[in-house]
Specification:
Elements: H1 20-29, H2 36-52, H3 58-69, H4 76-82, H5 87-94
């Protein structure tokens, strides 16, 4: 991913550098092969950021996804299956957004 500046944790320094190709590269670095279920979450995350100006932590992320995608796609288990470890943090990174404030 030459030419895309990132911080020491791998988050984009400039949100305008994000593209689906960049997301794909970050996901591969994290051992994730993106499919349609990942993309709908990533696009919802970017919509959340555009609306509220921040990256959501897990609880607000689940609430937002429930409203946007339905209850079956808004559970922590569903998100953990797609973004292992810390779903809010990992999905934000792949979506080209800042790390959520309360994620370690």
């Amino acid at each position: 991913m030459s030419g895309v500046a990132r911080d020491e944790e791998g988050y984009l320094l400039d949100l305008a550098d994000w593209s689906e190709a960049v997301a794909h590269d970050i996901a591969l670095e994290e051992g994730i092969s993106l499919d349609a279920s990942h993309w709908e979450i990533l696009h919802a995350l970017r919509a959340f950021h555009a609306q509220f100006g921040l990256s959501p932590a897990m609880r607000p992320l689940c609430k937002y996804l429930k409203e946007r995608l339905g209850a079956d796609k808004a559970t922590s288990i569903y998100l953990l299956q797609r973004f292992p470890g810390s779903p809010a943090k990992l999905a934000a990174k792949i979506a080209g957004l800042p790390k959520p404030d309360n994620c370690l």
